[in-house]
Amino acid sequence: MAGKQKYPNAEIHNRLRRSAENLIHRGAELPNHSGSLSVDALQLLYQKANTPDSAADALKLLHELQTYQVELDLLYEQLQANEQEITEELAHYRSLYEQAPVAYLSVANDGEIMESNQAAGVLFGVPSTALIGRAMASLLAPGQDETLNALAVPSQDAISASITLPDQRCLTIDARSAADGNSVLMVLTETRVPSIPSKPSAIS
User: Fold this and answer.
1) Strand order across the 113-116 sheet
2) Residues 105 and 152 in one domain
3) Is the dihedral of CA 88, 179, 101, 168 positive or negative?
4) Rounded to whole angstroms, how far apart are CA atoms 120 and 129?
5) Are residues 140 and 111 in the same domain?
6) Which residues contact 187 (CB under 8 A, 6 or more apart)?
7) Are residues 74 and 93 in the same domain?
8) Pair (144, 51) in one structural domain
């Protein structure tokens, strides 16, 4: 269809081109992140500009190269801003995870702990980093393999189960499979009243 853009990022490119041409028209200076033309390229343009038959084409090409260079500078600055925003957002959510008042664990389907936060370390009485690589079963009282195996079954439904630690403290685990299905995300809370470990049940 006539007038229809032929590629999905056409509008973004057109907006970038308009910004670049506007900056050139205003004579604004931008940091040159994209480098300069080589000596050979400049000599070729100079030769064409001094030849009557090709002078107009040379000037047009020079303007196009200048516009393209400004486009690259604008794009580079936008990429830097996006990277900074992503870095800050990642740090924000990492802080929320690490300093959350409840214990979080990410456990592989084979039972190995992949990630833990500070509250999990406090709960088990060790630094959170010391939990990484340990088998979840090694932190619990014996005889709870069935409960752990049930929690490791991939499911998008939240599952709740009670487990017991070697010191007889009782925990409630609320678990859900990670999006990739290769691990289980767990929230652990200590219960006040000891109870017999129960089989996992779906949370309504």
Assistant:
1) 113-116, 103-108, 183-191, 170-177, 159-164, 201-202
2) yes
3) negative
4) 10
5) yes
6) 102, 103, 104, 173, 174, 175
7) yes
8) no
Alpha-carbon distance of 135 to 132, in angstroms, equals: 9
Q: Is 92 helix (H, G, I), strand (E, B) or coil?
A: helix
Question: Which residue matches tokens 């309504």?
Answer: 204
Q: Where are the alpha helices (DSSP H) in the chain?
A: 10-26, 39-49, 55-98, 118-124, 128-131, 145-151
Instruction: List all residues 6 or more positions away from 165 whose beta carbon is below 8 Å from its beta carbon.
Output: 124, 139, 140, 141, 171
Domain range for 19 is 10-27+34-97
Q: Is 172 exposed, middle or buried (0-12, 13-18, 19+ CB in 10 A)?
A: middle
Contact criterion met (CB below 8 Å) for 197 and 162 = yes
pTM over cut 0.85: no
Query: Based on the structure, what is the number of domains in the chain?
Result: 2
Distance CA 120, CA 104 (A): 6
Tens-binned pLDDT, residue by residue, of the chain (204 aa): 444 445 556 666 666 566 656 655 655 555 555 555 555 555 665 666 666 666 666 666 666 777 777 777 778 888 888 899 999 998 898 888 888 999 999 999 889 999 999 999 999 999 999 999 999 999 999 999 888 888 877 667 788 899 999 999 999 999 998 888 889 999 999 986 544 555 565 555
